[in-house]
Every structure is written in structure tokens, then in C-alpha cells.
Amino acid sequence: MAQAQTEALSCPYALDAMGRNLGREAAMLRTQGPAVQVTLPGGITAWAVVQQRYVERILADDRVSRSARLHWPDFIDGHIQADWPLYPWVANENMFNSYGEQRSRLRRLVAGAFTVRRSEAMRPKVEAITAELLAGLADQGAQAPVDLRARFTALLPMRVICELFGVEQGAATDALCAALHTVFTSSVSAEEMNQALLEAFHLLTAVVERKRVEPGDDLTSALIAARDADDRLTEEELLGTLYLMIAGGMDSPTTLMTNAIAALLTHPEQLEHVRAGRADWNDVIDETLRMHTPGAYSPLRFAVEDIDLDGVLIKKGEPILVSFAAGGLDPVRYGASVAEFDLLRTGRDTLGFGHGAHRCLGAPLARVEAQSAFGELFDRFPDMQLACPADELEPMPTFLMNGFKSLPVLLG
């Protein structure tokens, strides 16, 4: 078996675009050293980094850039075009794909609008939306299976992030959600990916145009104001930032909550720790971020100069792919109990919300959403259980996200 794995990896190893078993794949890659060459959709070769200590080093290294425009020769020379399925992940103009002072500038402008204060101020609204959605679930009855992802964990962050950015509910919002969900799916074609991107930017442009005419107390209006100040966002940066923040504010919290609920229903003794006061919902969030991190691989980063990663040479300009999901399952960091979902675990230092300067700006809001969702869900439906065996839950068809595409439950 070991020989077969080594031969497969020497090809180099082709990552499964369907993300059918991210944990097993990462465990295989982890044995190959600090970094291993892999093939992405479209035949692009990159260095995969899955061990947590090396992911942290890459994220903290100023010789590593997110800007394809500055530091990926194949992109600069025009070899990477829109017919590459993951093109939107490297081509958009936002702080996700910027480098150095440009990235710091964009983050400053966005952080000024996306504050912890705003997140906490959203708590009553989050709780009201949560209660409304759960009341709708209760009306469905207790006997028939309900897809909790489609009916609750996907709707809550969508409603919250749209409220925060002043995006009105309706058909346009549904279309925006569908488009952004497609962009997070690594198994779609380049044509589908680009069509989804165009649809998303078309809808966001309409939001910006409306907010210029009728500004409000929302983040879109705040970002427009930042754009009109001396240190302003360009039009492309404004739309790219909206795209990044709204997309991240939907799929990542959805996947976090779905994964956490599935884990608690699979391990009722852990849920009992919360009910008995031995753990709280933050412990649920933190252990889920460790063991079932929503973000899997994050494409792409690029070596600004040659980097020696403890004996593995990543040459200047070569792409790097880091796995946030693999870090929490690294036995070097978390020991022999790494595969156990344990709310009483101490010493977590996960990558679930990023690391260092790359920590997610939306982390405080995601916690507010998850705390509200878990507390009210398990209070209202204390006898809830999975409607299928845990090993029949299907993964999302992507290596960009690490979660289940549905969560069938019996509310009880």
C-alpha cells in the first residue's frame, strides 16, 4: 500500500476535485514531508502544504504572496486564462489576492467597516432570524426528515450577511447565493465557474448602484464611503471586496454550523457536556474548527523568492496550496487523540479562522451566528437525531470546502 501511495504521489498526485475524502487524502500527503507537489484541475502543478506547523510558516512568511498578477509567471505571461476552472480564485481584485502594502491598505479599509462592534450589534437580529427559521422548521412536523443545511444553516448566515451589507431579500438574493455557492465548487467546469462569477458581479453591481443613490447603515454604504475618501477603493476593488466578504459570510459559517451539528448528533455524550455546563458553545465552535474546519484548500499562494521549507525547495514563482482543514488533524500538533471530537480538549490552536495577519475579519460574526444557532436549535429540538447513519452523509463536491452537502435530521 505504501509503495502504491508513493508511486501515485510521484506523478505528481492529482487532488480529488470532488473532495470525496479530504481527511484521508491529507493524511497521505502529510507523510510525504513539509510540502508535496500535486496537480489541480486543469493540469496546474502546485506545492501542497498540509502539516499545521508548515501551514503556519507559509501564512506568516512575507516571501509568500497571494497576488497572481505580481508573482505567478504563468498568469503574468498569459498562460493562465479564464478557461482554467479556478481562474476566479486568482484573478479577482480584493485583499484575498493582494500582497504587501496593497493587502494592508485593503484590509484597513474593510476592517474599518467590518468591526467586532458591528458583529455584536447584530446579535439581536441574528437571534430574531434564528427564531424565525426554527419556527418554520417546527411547522414541518417532527416525523419527516428535514435537510437542516438547506432549511436552516444555509439560510441563517445568508440572511445575516445580506442584512449587514444591505442586500434586500428576494429572487436576486437567491441568485447571488447560488452563484457564490458555485464559485466554491472545485468540480464545476470553467464555463460554469465563470458564468457564476459574472452573475455574482452583475448582482453586486446592482447593489452598489442602489446604495450610491440610497445609502444606509450597512457595510456596502460604508465601503462606498471608503472608496470616496482620499484613500479610496477602486471600482474593481469595491466589487471584489463585496464579493469576498459576502461569499465568505455565507458558505463558511454554513459549513461550520452544519459540521458542528452533525458532530454533536453523532457524539451525544459531547452535547451532554454542554447541557451539564462542562463545556459551552464556544467549545463546540473551537473543536469543530479543529476537527471539521470549513475551509479546506485555499488556492493559491506564490513564492516571491526561493523558499527552503526544511529541505523542500519551493522555487520563485511556484504556486502553493495550503490546507486549513488538515492542520487540525495533524497528530504532531494534537497527539494520539487527534481523531476524537472532544469538547473538553485543551490547547487548541486551530487554523479554522486563518492565522496571524490572515485571520478572517468575519470571525466575530461567525461566532455570534453559531452561538445563536446552536443554543436555540438544541433548546427547541432536544430530541433531534440524524435521519441517516453518519457515514452516509455526503461531502460537498469540492476540495475548497470541507463539509456535508446536506444534513438530514429528525427533529423529534
From TrEMBL:
<dbReference type="GO" id="GO:0016705">
    <property type="term" value="F:oxidoreductase activity, acting on paired donors, with incorporation or reduction of molecular oxygen"/>
</dbReference>
<keyword id="KW-0408">Iron</keyword>
<dbReference type="InterPro" id="IPR017972">
    <property type="entry name" value="Cyt_P450_CS"/>
</dbReference>
<dbReference type="InterPro" id="IPR036396">
    <property type="entry name" value="Cyt_P450_sf"/>
</dbReference>
<comment type="similarity">
    <text>Belongs to the cytochrome P450 family.</text>
</comment>
<keyword id="KW-0479">Metal-binding</keyword>
<keyword id="KW-0560">Oxidoreductase</keyword>
<keyword id="KW-0349">Heme</keyword>
<dbReference type="GO" id="GO:0020037">
    <property type="term" value="F:heme binding"/>
</dbReference>
<dbReference type="InterPro" id="IPR002397">
    <property type="entry name" value="Cyt_P450_B"/>
</dbReference>
<dbReference type="Pfam" id="PF00067">
    <property type="entry name" value="p450"/>
</dbReference>
<protein>
    <recommendedName>
        <fullName>Cytochrome P450</fullName>
    </recommendedName>
</protein>
<dbReference type="InterPro" id="IPR001128">
    <property type="entry name" value="Cyt_P450"/>
</dbReference>
<dbReference type="GO" id="GO:0005506">
    <property type="term" value="F:iron ion binding"/>
</dbReference>
<dbReference type="GO" id="GO:0004497">
    <property type="term" value="F:monooxygenase activity"/>
</dbReference>
<keyword id="KW-0503">Monooxygenase</keyword>
